[in-house]
Amino acid sequence: MQTICPRCADPELRTVTTSPVPGVWEVLQCPRCLYMWRTTEPARRTTREHYPEQFRLTPEAIATASEVPTIPPLRG
Questions:
Q1: What's the rounded Cα separation, in Å, for the pair 27 and 14?
Q2: Which InterPro entries did the record assign (predicted)?
Q3: pLDDT of 1
Q4: With 4 labelled, which of 13, 25, 37, 71 sits at a CA distance of 20 to 30 A?
Q5: Which ranges constitute the DSSP H helices of 1-76?
Q6: Domain limits of the chain?
Q7: Per residue in 4-35, is it b (16+ CB within 10 Å) or e — as a string?
Q8: What is the pTM of this model?
Q9: C-alpha to C-alpha distance for 53 and 50, rounded to whole angstroms
Q10: Would the pLDDT of 6 be above 90?
Q11: DSSP code, position 37
């Protein structure tokens, strides 16, 4: 199992949910950058060494982010 967040390298991960069939997959989330992934996704989504460098975050980048985008209103 992945031990650090692929995006920001935080070692503290949360299990959000698990597969209906025990042991098949889990959905994990990083509490620092809020990245979420299913454990069955490819390495480019689940491991730090394969996660695209241009999308990696540092604690400094997270702390100095100008704003978190808002969720747009639902279309009518």
A1: 8
A2: VdcD-like
A3: 53
A4: 71
A5: 43-46, 59-63
A6: 14-64
A7: ebbbbbbeebeeeeeeeeeeeebbbbbebbeb
A8: 0.80
A9: 8
A10: yes
A11: E
